[in-house]
Model the fold of this input.
Amino acid sequence: MPRKGAMNASPPTGPDTRDDRAIQCKWLASIARSQDMNAFEQLFRHFSPMIHRFMIRGGIGSDEAEELVQETMTRIWINAARFDPSLGAPQTWIYTIARNLRTDHLLKYRRRNTLPLDSLYQTHPDSSSQEDSVDASLVVDRFGKLSQDQVAVLELNFIAGMSQSEISDHLSVPLGTVKSRTRLAFRKLRRALGISE
Amino acid sequence: MNVFHHPSAETLVAHAAGTLDPVLMPVVSLHLDHCEHCSQQQRLAAQMGAALFAQPADEPMPPFDLERGLAAVKRRIAHPPPPAANTPDFLGRFSPAALQQVMWHRVTPKIEMFEIPELSGGDHWMRLFRFQPGTRVPHHRHAGEEFSLVLQGSYIEADACFATGDFSEADTTTRHAQQVDSDIACIALIATTGKIAFDNLPYRWASRLLGLV
Done:
């Protein structure tokens, strides 16, 4: 059975299971097929608190975070037909949309000469989110195999949106240490998930 | 395609997290197009990010008004902005067909260059280089990171051969030199986040005069 948080307005409390994923795929398919507002509301109630938290933890101000939640959810509505349920988990797809919007926002704020992140990823749009081989809930379970230092580096990278140099400054450890913690964490996770290197 | 030189695990994780410098990002993206193995690793890293994305925060979060947010998105959907232009096919500029159209700028009799203006500025730059067979790039160091990807031909670095699809990353601890060993010109996409310093003093001056560093 899917967890309760996936089905009602309660904020989600953890990573999605295979059952959650099946329901979310149906919501996206229904939005793509018939612009189903009820399905979109369900998706919004499930994902928008996650997206909001992701923006805030990445150092975005509260008002701008709300704007970026709205932009992310609007893109999901517009691009629902581009999501292929046979190839990827909605959570990964939505994470990549939010990640790109957050990074674009931060780069614009820093006045960096760049292009939209979407265009710097892959020649096949959204393919970075395809072919998920394991459940997010399983990945989180396997984080238990990592040391606290390794989890901290991954969280700062993925959630706080810090580069490895920024993590090095933030933790007051050499850049090489940040890199080796990341490398070891990734290797341990692959092994724990039974994925070859 | 046989690809033998790959980005490090930490670079693939940073790519999936969106935290690589934007000038370095496309070099990894193009390698992923050549390398299914790294592409799978990067997808796993993105799944790690998605799993962390769903984790509750330990620290208190400012309130988020679901109903107000939903109402705002419904208004956006009801009155959508004019359709934006498609995402520019930036990476398509580096396809074999597109490389035939590059307007090369000759730097030396054996080296031509084309700078990618959208991502270049200050000490950060992205450039295509076309090196004629036999070209030698003497020993040099970097003040930042350098990612490079071979798009045509091949070169030798420290007894290792880098051919089409092969990726190389260097940082402030790296000192290296290259020599083109293919019969055809070697084309490489190179991005860097810091100045380059050649060991050889005359080459250092010449490269500054030629606008290479």
Remarks:
- Chain B touches chain A through 61 residues (CB under 8 Å).
- The mean pLDDT of chain B is 91.
